[in-house]
């Protein structure tokens, strides 16, 4: 994460067991931060889905439902953007794999990454076999909102 | 966890009223209930989403699987009165063109 040279105001980090009942905490934390940043209701709700989808991927594909593993959610507030990173211990995948769902050939899986991409301004996925997967999502803020 | 399900029957049609948030945790309750209905031979299922404030891909995945199951058996599924937030997720994913969405 490129902290050097950027105008980081605050970093909030949440570490949860890799278990379904805790993913709601990531959404609730996001709601609190979004409210602090005076994001609109819809902006907060969009980001809640994005962070939950990233956590769900970490849960299902990273730790494979092993609650002994951890998911780390990092909320980085900068002057002009909110960056949310979700880290797990999985093997990772390529962001270019995110495809538009085909309504004629839908499967129960595969919608999560598409939703993330649709609901945030930028998304980047880094996978490293020994360090897990890091999904980084960026929401740009209108001028001055991080300074409230 | 803020999630509840109520079911009722009108003729051959089953109405499942969901309330609260459908996510990776609560969706297991939804899946269990729907699977029980399907196992009992239900062919017409209406899922009332008028009190669902949040849905993610796990909930959508259950709806997709249910629709497929019902279609294979000549049945049908309807989503009733999704809230604006749920409708937005359906629109983004293109599922608004897949599901039969009705408003009360």
List keywords for this structure.
heterodimer; A: 148 residues; alpha+beta; Heat Shock Protein 90; 3 helices; 30% helix; B: 104 residues; alpha/beta; Transcription Regulator spoIIAA; 5-stranded mixed beta sheet; globular
Write a compact overview of the structure shown.
The complex is a heterodimer of chains A (148) and B (104). Chain A is α+β, with helices and mostly antiparallel strands.
Strand order of the largest sheet of chain B: 1-2-3-4-5
Order of helices and strands of chain B: EEHEHEHE
Number of helices of chain B: 3
CATH architecture of chain B: 2-Layer Sandwich
Structure in words:
By secondary structure, chain A is α+β, with helices and mostly antiparallel strands. Chain A has a single domain (8-147), classed as Heat Shock Protein 90 (2-Layer Sandwich), CATH 3.30.565.10. Chain A is 30% helix and 28% strand. Chain A has helices at residues 23-36, 41-62, 111-119, and strands at residues 8-17, 70-78, 81-87, 122-128, 132-140. Chain A has a 5-stranded antiparallel β-sheet, with helices on one face. In chain A, a hairpin with a 2-residue loop joins strand 2 and strand 3 (81-87). The longest helix of chain A has 22 residues, at 41-62. The model of chain A has no long low-confidence stretch (mean pLDDT 85). With 104 residues, chain B is α/β, with parallel strands linked by helices. Chain B has one domain (3-102): STAS domain (Transcription Regulator spoIIAA), CATH 3.30.750.24. Chain B is built from 3 helices and 5 strands. Chain B has a 5-stranded mixed β-sheet with strand order 1-2-3-4-5. In chain B, strand 2 (13-22), helix 1 (27-39) and strand 3 form a beta-alpha-beta unit. In chain B, helix 1 (27-39) runs parallel beside helix 2 (57-72). The model of chain B has no long low-confidence stretch (mean pLDDT 95). Chains A and B meet through helix 1, helix 2 and helix 3 of A and helix 2 and helix 3 of B.
């Amino acid at each position: 994460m490129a902290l050097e040279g950027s105008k980081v105001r605050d970093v909030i980090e949440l570490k949860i067991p890799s278990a379904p009942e805790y993913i709601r905490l990531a959404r609730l934390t996001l709601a609190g931060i979004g409210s602090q940043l005076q994001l609109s209701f819809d902006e907060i709700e969009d980001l809640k889905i994005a962070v939950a989808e990233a956590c769900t991927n970490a849960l299902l594909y990273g730790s494979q439902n092993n609650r002994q593993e951890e998911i780390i959610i990092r909320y980085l507030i900068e002057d002009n953007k909110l960056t949310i990173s979700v880290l797990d211990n999985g093997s990772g995948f390529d962001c270019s794999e995110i495809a538009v769902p085909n309504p004629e050939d839908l499967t129960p899986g595969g919608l999560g990454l598409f939703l993330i991409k649709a609901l945030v301004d930028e998304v980047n996925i880094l996978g490293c076999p020994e360090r897990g997967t890091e999904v980084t999502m960026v929401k740009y803020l209108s001028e001055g909102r991080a300074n409230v | 966890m803020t999630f509840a399900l109520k079911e009722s029957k009108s003729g051959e049609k089953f109405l499942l009223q969901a309330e609260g948030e459908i996510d990776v945790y609560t969706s297991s309750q939804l899946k269990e209930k729907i699977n029980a209905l399907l196992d009992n031979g239900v062919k017409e299922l209406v899922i009332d989403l008028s009190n669902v404030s949040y849905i993610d891909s796990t909930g959508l995945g259950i709806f997709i699987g249910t629709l497929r199951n019902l279609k294979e058996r000549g049945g049908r599924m309807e989503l009733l009165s999704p809230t604006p937030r749920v409708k937005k997720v359906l629109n983004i994913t293109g599922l608004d063109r897949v599901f039969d969405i009705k408003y009360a």
